Amino acid sequence: MGDYDLLVKGGTLVDPSQGIGEQRDVAVSDGKVAEIRRGLSTSSAKQVVDADGLIVAPGLVDIHTHVYDAVMPLGINPDLCCLSKGTTTAVDAGSSGYLNFPGLKEHIIDRSSTRIYALLNIGSLGLMTYGTDLEPLQTDPRQVDVANTVRAIRENRDSVVGIKWHSTYGPKALLSARAAADKAGTIMMCENSAASWVPVSSVLDYMKRGDILTHAFQGGPAPGILDENGSVKPEVLKAVKRGVVIDVGHGAGSFSFETAEKAIGQGLLPDVISTDLHARSVNGPVFDMPTTLSKFLALGLSVEDVVIRATSGAARAVGLQNGAGTLRVGAAADVVVLRLETGDFVFEDSLGKKRKGERRLITDTVVRGGLRV
Ligand SMILES: [Zn+2]
Fold first, then answer.
1. Using CB atoms within 10 A of its CB, is residue 160 exposed (0-12), middle (13-18) or buried (19+)?
2. pLDDT digits 0-9 by tens, 22-67
3. What are phi and psi of 92, to 5 degrees?
4. How many angstroms is it from 27 CA to the middle of ligand 1?
């Protein structure tokens, strides 16, 4: 019997990557998952996390965040806002472009306890002017440089997982994003924007298998994926058929319960559940990953359904093959222990619309690389 550094004892392991949904103990050594078995002895471990009555899942993977803290105006601190809530792997969705990615790498990616990857904005300065009076400058064509963007991706393959097209850069930048993604051989994440000048059908025209449509369940006057009768548009169904990934990207203005209910009712479920966490969504309506997952429990999904979309499903969508989103033996010991509470809860979407739910996920304990956070 080996001596483990840490043992997560007595919880229900929900790890869709291995098809496990039953009681198992998770033993950790040298920052990696050493063993998953029922009945591992607490005396075999230096540290024990009591997960009795709790859910044990792979550390959450949030593929839409903005963690260029103190540089991007809406940036948040990843360790405070993501890791402490159970997100052990966060993808920054276009806060930086090729010109200011080096800062994201040096000051955030390399220094945070959270594992951080980036989708590089097709705009050279990313979202530095987003939400400010300077935002209209993003549509200046000089903001886009395909050759340098491709070079930056090639030089940073370990951190950059694709391209981000943000709608504020306009339709021309979408063509550039397509070109850059093709040249670099990466995926691109595109926004389902509420801006009527880039309707989702036009955006989808440029999206291929593996590309990610974020803000999929946008609401408001231009709900995007639904037609005026509330039916999922045929071009959306076609895109899903050819392998376009449907992502939530909740955010301050991009998630509508009504749109989600109608889409799910017609069989269109998200492939990935992400937050679009930034300074204007972190204090509500998004708060964190467990709250976002709880909203999908309220929409009728099961715990397994939401966990797969926030772990292995999310990791696969951004091409992470380094063991993120799984607790297979040998994978990084990134673990979240969640409490599934029952009661009468009220959840709010980005439009201020409320829904009741009877279940809520709350973070109990987070382990990152074998160390308790
Ligand atoms: Zn965003």
1. buried
2. 999 999 999 999 999 999 999 989 999 999 999 999 999 999 999 9
3. -80, 120
4. 36
* Six token digits for residue 166: 């943000």
* Ligand 1 centroid – CA 41 distance (Å): 44
pTM of the predicted protein model: 0.97
Whether the link from the prior residue into 285 is cis, omega within 30° of 0, is: yes
Question: How far does the centroid of ligand 1 lie from the alpha carbon of residue 127, in Å?
Answer: 9
Q: Which residues surround ligand 1, an ion (CB under 5 A)?
A: 93, 276
DSSP 123-167: BTTTTTTTTSTTGGGGGSGGGB-HHHHHHHHHHTTTTEEEEEE-G
Nearest to 214 by CA among 281, 172, 167, 152: 167
Q: Give the Cα separation of 192 and 249 in Å (integer).
A: 10
**What separation in Å is there between the alpha carbon of 221 and the centre of ligand 1?**
20
Report the separation in Å between the CA atom of 90 and the middle of ligand 1, taken as the mean of its atom positions.
12
Ligand 1 center to residue 188 CA distance, Å?
A: 13
Ligand 1: centre distance to CA 126 (Å): 11
Q: What is the DSSP code (8-state) at residue 105?
A: I
| Separation of CA 166 and ligand 1 centre (Å) | 8
- Angstrom distances, CA of residue 21 to CA of 13, 15, 39, 302: 6, 6, 16, 12
Q: Fill in the DSSP letter of residue 106.
A: I
Q: Are 63 and 247 in contact (CB under 8 A)?
A: yes
Cα gap 114→68, rounded to integer Å? 13
Tell me the C-alpha distance between 301 and 152, whole Å: 39
Strands across the sheet containing 160-165? 60-65, 87-93, 115-121, 160-165, 187-191, 212-214, 245-246
Over residues 312-332, the pLDDT tens digits come to 999 999 999 878 999 999 999
Distance 123 CA to ligand 1 centre (A): 14
- Residue 241 alpha carbon to ligand 1 centre in Å: 25
